[in-house]
Specification:
Radius of gyration: 29 Å
Structural class: alpha+beta
Number of helices: 15
Number of domains: 3
CATH topology of the largest domain: Rossmann fold
CATH architecture of the largest domain: 3-Layer(aba) Sandwich
Helix content: 25-40%
Distance between the termini: 57 Å
Largest sheet: 6 strands, mixed
Strand order of the largest sheet: 3-2-1-4-6-5
Length: 432
Amino acid sequence: MQHRIVPQVIEQLKPWQRAPAWCVAFSGGLDSTVLLHILATQIPPSSRPALRAVYIHHGLQQAAEDWPAHCQSVCEQLGVALSVIKIKVAQQASVEQAARNARYTAYAEHLQPEELLLMAQHQDDQAETLLFRLLRGSGITGLQAIPRQRALGQAHLLRPLLGIARQELEDYAQQHQLNWVEDPSNAEEYFDRNFLRRQIIPLLKQRWPATLSVLQRATEHMREAQQLLNDLAQLDLQQAQLAAPISWLPLAGLQLDKIAKLSDKRQKNLLRYWLADKTPAIETQHWAGWYDLRDAKADAQPVWRLQQGALVRYQQQLYWLPESWLASVETVQLEITKPGRYVLPGNGVLEVQGELPVLIHIRYRQGGEQMQLPTRGRRDLKRLLQEQNIPQFLRQRIPLAYMQQQLIAVANCSSLQGAKAKQFQLYWYPPP
């Protein structure tokens, strides 16, 4: 007799019938064992893509050393190929978070384009995650808890058990006499999630039997609210998007004067949306950095440092600088005698076109440079770059051409060419 959870899983998988393959994130525990068994035995091979499994070996506890062999045995019984991937977990305050980050990175690197990764989180996990984030004071984004599906690198991730309670999975496992491993760390109530799972959620279910389904419904409400906030952010972004005054600059930007007209709450909503793919979620205490940047004097050069980069201001323009752009570039002393493309360490590529004099030297700005222009005489380079509307953070990176110690050309600035540079052009392609 088919267990009642099987049709629910099959329904979740209908949109993914044309994926190149289904790959199960297999830990050997109850949840992933049930999921793998359903896919391998309850869905005919002719009705699904190729099926395989992947086990991520963290090496964090002695008990786990036997789990790869167990997973291999289960997969052999089911006729499913298994890949075992060993990873190193970074040493940091939260070992759980570090392991999770390393695990998802490994999945993203291992999966093939458009392949579907199937993970076995269930309704109890959803409730646990929602309560955990609520107690941390998370906003609407965090209170959406575990998403049912999302992109993962070039592949996709789906959680087909998310609407099914763990008790249902236990019933299925007992019906089919499945064997699984138990992670001893799950019994350690020192960990917050384990405490919620073992102490708080059972109490809630005693008083309110529908706790799991109600909490899942709450996450769906949060997802709807987040979509409305995203729609509002998109409208605000259309008004604030920076129409790049520098066509060759591959950096995202916003217009500060347009953002400043919004309420504080809409400013934060817009920035959360715009920065979502650039930096992890911004903690409440870090928003003071935004107000400092926004309200700084016109001639200031404020920087709002965040994870993986920073938001900087130049006049009324905001730019996001990735981490690689915040480091100082190496001193460069290129000698060029012929046209071509030249790699600038940590600073993109320089392309030289046209006819060169015998020799030109490529350097970066150090300060105090002057330049002789045919119609303007001798001018300070600092003032010339200001006139070209070159942001401050670019001025130490933009390549300069010298001949016999005389500055004769500035890359990407056709109006900043001396008389000796009329026969060639410098095109700088900054790092992405």
